[in-house]
Amino acid sequence: MNRRKLIELVGAPFAAFGVAVVVSSIVLVLAGYNPLDAFDAMWSHINGTDALIDAINDAAPYYVSGLAAAIGFKMGLFNIGVEGQYRMAAFWAAVIGAKVSLPAVLHVPFILIVAMLVGGAWASVPGVLAVKRNVNVVISTIMLNSITVALVALWLKDSHFRYRPNPADLVPKTKTLDRSAWMPDLNAAIEKIGFHFPANTRLHGYLVLAAVIGAVFYVLVWRTRFGFDLRMSGANPSAARASGVNPNRMIVMTMLMSGALAGLVGMGQMLSEGHLFGDQFPTGLGFAGIAVALLGRNHPAGIAFAAFVWSALETASIGLSNVEIPQEIAKIMQGTLLLSAVVVYEIIKRQSAAATLRAAAETTRAKALEVSTA
Amino acid sequence: MTATVPPETTNRAAGRRFALPESAALRWMIYAGGFVVVLSVLRVVTGVNDLTAGGTFSAALLLAVPILLAGLGGLFAERVGVINIGLEGMMVLGTFGAGWAGYEYGAWWGVICACLFGALGGLLHAVATVTFGVDHIISGVAINIIAPGVVRFLAAIVFVGTSGGAITQGPRISSNTGQFSLPLLSGGNLFGWNTPDPLQRIANKEWFLVSDLCGVVHGLTNGVAMYTVLAVLLVPASAYVLWRTPFGLRLRSIGEKPEAADSLGVNVYLMKYLGVAISGGLAGLGGGILVIENGRRFNEGQTANRGFIGLAALIFGNWRPGGIASGAGLFGFAEALRLRSSPGADSVLAVILLATVLLALVSLNALRTRKYVAAAISGAVAIVIGVYYWQAEVVPTEFQFMTPYVATLLVLIFASKRLRPPAAEGKPWRKGQTT
Amino acid sequence: MIDSTAIVLRGITKRFPGVVANDNVDLTVRHGSVHAIVGENGSGKSTLMKILYGEQPPDEGTITVDGTVRSFKSPRDAIAAGIGMVHQHFMLAGNLTVIENVILGDEPGRKWRIDVDVARARIAEIGRRYGLAVDPDATIDELGVGERQRVEILKVLYRGVKILILDEPTAVLVPHEVDELFTSLRDLTAEGVTALFISHKLDEVLAIADAITVIRAGRTVAHVLPADVDAHQLAELMIGSELPTPETRDDTVQPETVLALRGLCLHDGERVVLDEVEVVVHAGEIVGIAGVEGNGQRELLDIVIGIEQADSGSILLEGEDVTTLSTRHRREIGLGYIPEDRHHDGLVLEAPLWENVMLGHQTRKPFVNGPWIDKRAAIERTEQIIEAFDVRTPGAEVAAVALSGGNQQKLLIGREMLTDPKVLVAAHPTRGIDVGAQAVAWDAIRDARAKGLGVLLISADLDELIGLSDSLLVIYKGRIVAHLDPARITPGELGSYMTGAREASGATR
How confident is the model at residue C224 (pLDDT cuts 50, 70, 90)? Predict the structure, then answer.
């Protein structure tokens, strides 16, 4: 039994990765490139400390985004709206965070809380609509994503939220946060244990936050009563309801939490890197989070691994420019990895279900035999 | 077995429902007529002539058709019980097919390849959902992630180096699918005779209602791309196929109760594959028309979430072709107004006035039926919008950009309780395994 | 030359993961006869019929139809060979019309045009000939249970089928509907149709069958003629002992009321679902509610459980007004629930048994400790249930899906009884489970009743309803139309109340 579990846990992602490699190789060959050149270029790029640190830094927002999506998935609620929620939250966190001046110990938590509140509030809109008006969450979150893009662009364009000390300044952005709101790097802490960072590389402090969120996620979902209600609602909503779980309350609560986590997705960029919200603020983190959550099977450890693979593929693809192969092959790899992973997981689920049935039937029969002979 | 009359039987509202409702065409004409009347009143009140100008409606048609095709695509998938969030990705595949084949071999080849590329996306979705039982939303999301990646990669290979082509943009497509004007009314060609164009003349007169109506009809029937004609014809064609043919009956039965079809020897897997492939093909056609007729070249991000709006039109239209067409038409109209807005004669502002009036009516009606909360909410919103109309000069383009999404959301909020999706939608099905 | 046998099955074997559903089954069915196949739930009757109808391939064995050996790849092949089947669970698409459901897969007309007129005429003709009247243009959603079954039979006859398989056709019918079905069957066999009749209701089998085959644990154990056996002997053959009965003998009804429903009304748009429903359940009393499916009993239970709200009226649980309280609150006061469909509302199949046992108790000690789950305590309780209710399972960590239907139901009943509820709401507590599990379920309900549990019982099995209940109410079109004494009523009489043929209270107490 344990061996089967191990194969499921480790074998499945590798099988999916293998499929992704094969498919992208075929695509490369059809396009007239040598796949080995491509993979070699990607490997040699990622195989360096600074690229690796980049990949880890970039993986952190994917991770948090993955957790935000996963908590919804765990109860069968498809919050496709993480994309909009993190943008909404990042914008307001930037605006409000720049308005206050606080000591560093308070400034960072203050901004994080603002982001969580805004993200949660914005995500609760589809939650409430689902409960009160029976509006499908998938559809409403998709619509709200587009609405968010427009709203944020509008606020950033001509309003007092825009920071424009010089009227000739054409790039819309918010005011840069005070130094007190910058998250410290991990470099100093890690260099104490003897690791030396290459020049100009920084390991973001946001990683600690991401790790803490992951741990809280695990405990909440698998160890608490709330998590129990959540998982049962996801697995069989009507049975959960008959057991006394209030499905409406669950939907709103889950959307709130998913949105609050989504609010933290942009904080890596906000507190560790750019320190403002502008039209250069990264997009697509929400959709990547969905992919990463699916790859990681909604488990914090799996999502961590998936987030790293996702970002490593992106970082590694930069190396492709050296051999003049389109970097977009990395996107194809990500996509096929995702699709083959969900297919492989499904196959394994079926096989292990059949195995459970068989094993249970056999043990039951053995027990019955014992009883009848005794 | 004749004495039992269970309680449900007494509740048999409308019996004859085998075919399309007999009065469907008539009903749609009444709706459309009412729509034009409202618009003409609004035009007179606000003085925004664009509201019923032929140009607005031909733009609306052009913008509605991609949504329409995506919606019809959604229809075929969901009628076999497969939710298709991947419509957007399949449209993206269609844009590349059209951009490439349209440039290389001509517009009609572009149409065909748009359909084929979209269908490939549909097949991928079918493999994941039907054969492997992957959750439909998950597979759809995956396709939406894969498709732009694949297209970007292909564009990098195919378009870079062509004249005017780059990784985000294809070369210009020189040919088109031809144009059609209605003979005798909108100046169409009849056996080589260039017929007059009376509708245009009347439309120019600015007679209340008459000119409005003529303007609208002229806009919809003059110089319409053959691709658009094809797309519009797909609406009755879909209705015919789904409700009049054995194939359509089998498709629909699978969206309702696959076990039933299976127990009568219908190949459920095959039907599901066909339905989802057709879905992808239609979505691809929707992407293709953006390239061939609207943009005249491939552009990255050209679909701009129209696949999702198509999905919304599908729901808005209660999983019926006519409903989808009206949803797509409404969203296309909203977008057309945005494109044709100008300061001082802002069509969107005019529509905002309309929304205020409608909401006020909803509020009054709620008051009458003693739904005080609903009355208060719609009344408050009406007042807010009304004040906005009063003080606003120009509506920011972002607001106009939001219009279809907000409209969709509103429709879902106010109508989702009367919707009837296919019963087996989203449920995985495996032969010999009844749940 | 046609053999006088319509069907011959030889050595049919079918294995599923861990189980042998059919083990070397032999069966011979004569032309124009009604051949009954009896066996308890889970004995493999349905699997055998699915094999005969081409829905599942046998692992071994041969099927001979009208003297020709056949191998069916799909129901289409079986239909072509003249075999049709009416499934236990209706195979009808709710949003489609009767015509559409009947012609599906065998549509008249051309490839690109269904000829509706031909279809309508043919269906009307068959309906007239066999007395199967139903509105061809109604959608299935609009039809009642009896009508839906008629549509199922129409589907089969429309295909010109000569061999008709009926899988538990009487499960959802009231007695006089059963009589009508039997009349139709007699008409059909007179016209040369052969019928295979699957059932575990022995009286019905003896009434209709020309020949009987008994199946036990996937094996054929006997071929008998109805004239040669009685119900007791048949039960002996079927399970090796007498069938358990749901009789409650002693009177345990106590004076205090544990559950009172006062003037409950519910509307679905214009339709009246429940109309001024009044029910009182005393401690130690089982109140049965009889009714044809779709007369409001399901909604009534939902309202009592608290997953639906009534438009008006009130619910008193242990004297406390719980009308506006949540399901969770009601459970905490002392409400247990055995749902109609254990897979849909009762269990989380992919979750382990201990999590399933927690379900419904997840706010209470020992399962939780503040916000934290106490897995060890949950496993302990689960093992107690496994022991006390004879749940056959490898352990508490196994997923519920791995258990047989009977064992799942035993676990479910054990879970609901675990915290000694004051009121139990039970819907079809023994539907589709084997006799062993059935006996456990009945014993559990009887024991709890003796200790003062009040039970609100709904069942389609009229023997169960009459046998267990201390008091019997009949619901028809959302109204309680009769209040009967179960000691003085027969299933036949009860059936006529249920269909509204008899009204006013009969034996009012």
Answer: very high
Of C104, C176, C184, the CB nearest to B261: C104
Measured between beta carbons, which residues in chain A are less than 8 angstroms from residue B148? 331
CB B95 within 8 A of CB B168: no
Burial annotation C449-477 (CB, 10 A radius, 16+ → b, else e) = beebbbbbbbbbbbebbbbbbbbbbbbbb
Cβ neighbours of A2 (radius 10 Å): 6
Share of chain A above pLDDT 70, in %: 96
Cβ of A357 within 8 Å of Cβ of C17? The answer is: yes
Q: What are A201-228's pLDDT values in tens digits?
A: 888 999 999 999 999 999 999 999 999 9
Chain C residue with minimum CA distance to A244: C328
Distance CA C502, CA C494 (A): 9
- Closest CB to A143 among B138, B146, B312: B312
Chain B environment of C170 (Cβ under 8 Å): none
More confident residue, A156 or B185: A156
Q: Which chains touch A (3 or more CB pairs under 8 A)?
A: B, C
CB contact under 8 A, A357 and C394: no
Model confidence over A176-196: pLDDT tens digits? Answer: 888 888 888 888 888 888 778
Cβ contact, residue pair A361, C19, below 8 Å:
yes
What's the complex ipTM? 0.86
3-state secondary structure chain A: CHHHHHHHHHHHHHHHHHHHHHHHHHHHHHCCCCHHHHHHHHHHHHCCHHHHHHHHHHHHHHHHHHHHHHHHHHCCCCCCCHHHHHHHHHHHHHHHHHHCCCCHHHHHHHHHHHHHHHHHHHHHHHHHHHHHHCCCHHHHHHHHHHHHHHHHHHHHHCCCCCCCCCCCCCCCECCCCCHHHCCCCCHHHHHCCCCCCCCCCCCCCHHHHHHHHHHHHHHHHHHEHHHHHHHHHHHCHHHHHHCCCCHHHHHHHHHHHHHHHHHHHCHHHHHHCCCCCECCCCCCHHHHHHHHHHHCCCCHHHHHHHHHHHHHHHHHHHHHHHHCCCCCHHHHHHHHHHHHHHHHHHHHHHHHHHHHHHHHHHHHHHHHHHHHHC
Subunits adjacent to chain C (3 or more Cβ pairs under 8 Å): A, B
Task: Note the pLDDT tens digit of each residue in B380-389.
Answer: 888 887 787 7
Contact C393 A360 (CB under 8 A): yes
Q: In angstroms, rounded to a whole number, what is the distance separating the alpha carbons of residues C442 and C244?
A: 9
Which chain B residues are within 8 Å of C112, Cβ to Cβ?
A: 244-245, 247
For residues C215 and C39, the answer to whether their CB atoms sit within 8 Å is yes
Contact criterion met (CB < 8 Å) for A27 and B153: yes
Give the helix, strand, coil percentages of chain C, each rounded to 5.
35, 30, 35
The predicted-structure confidence for A277-332, as pLDDT tens digits, reads as follows 988 899 889 999 999 999 999 999 999 999 999 999 999 999 998 888 888 888 88
- In chain B, the residue whose alpha carbon lies closest to the alpha carbon of C270 is B11
The CA distance from A313 to the nearest CA of chain B, in Å, is 13
Among the residue ranges A231-240, C76-85, C500-509, the one predicted with the least confidence is: C500-509
Alpha-helical runs (H) found in C306-344: 327-334
**Closest Cα to residue A195, out of A46, A42, A43, A52?**
A52
d(CA C412, CA C427): 12
CA–CA dist C168, C38 (Å, integer) = 10
| Residue A241 to residue A238: CA distance in whole angstroms | 5
Measure CB to CB from residue C93 to each of B4, B7, B260 and give the nearest one: B260
Query: Distance, in angstroms, between A66 CA and closest chain B CA?
Result: 14
Closest-CA distance, C419 to chain A, in angstroms, reads: 13
